[in-house]
Design a protein that fits this description.
3-stranded antiparallel beta sheet, mainly beta, 38% strand, SH3 type barrels, single chain, 2 domains, 10 strands, 5-stranded antiparallel beta sheet
């Protein structure tokens, strides 16, 4: 996000993914334009449900922890724990990576990942 924008790609355009760094996909132009990176949440393989007329539900937003849960450095149980989150707190999900959700604090807490099975959508009840 701290790099300059190379270009803006129109929705639905086909792209060539030639590499990956974390959740960033490296794309190259077939017409000689400069390579660049896009967030994987804005791309899907051809023929996937995301590219059809039905869209997957938006996974970002507010969630509530269902149990005490470990917040991990990366999307998997093999990553170190950065914090232990108590049951019943509100967390801010910014993206999904498989069965893991990236959580970023709006109040300066450490970002990390937790499993989808340990949270539910936040409702104002």
């Amino acid at each position: 996000m701290s790099y300059p924008v190379v270009t803006t790609l129109p929705k639905g355009i086909k792209i060539d993914v030639v590499g990956r760094q974390g959740y960033w996909l490296k794309v190259e132009s077939k017409h000689g334009g400069a390579p660049g990176y896009i967030d994987e949440q804005f791309a899907a393989p051809e023929g996937s449900p995301q590219n059809s007329t039905t869209t997957k539900p938006q996974l970002t937003g507010a969630y509530r922890t269902l149990v005490d849960v470990d917040l991990r450095q990366g999307p998997g149980a093999k990553y170190p724990v950065v914090a232990r989150l108590p049951s019943g707190i509100k967390v801010n999900v910014v993206r999904a990576e498989g069965d893991w959700l990236r959580v970023e604090s709006k109040h300066g807490g450490k970002p990390g990942y937790l499993e989808t099975r340990f949270v539910e959508r936040w409702t104002e009840n």
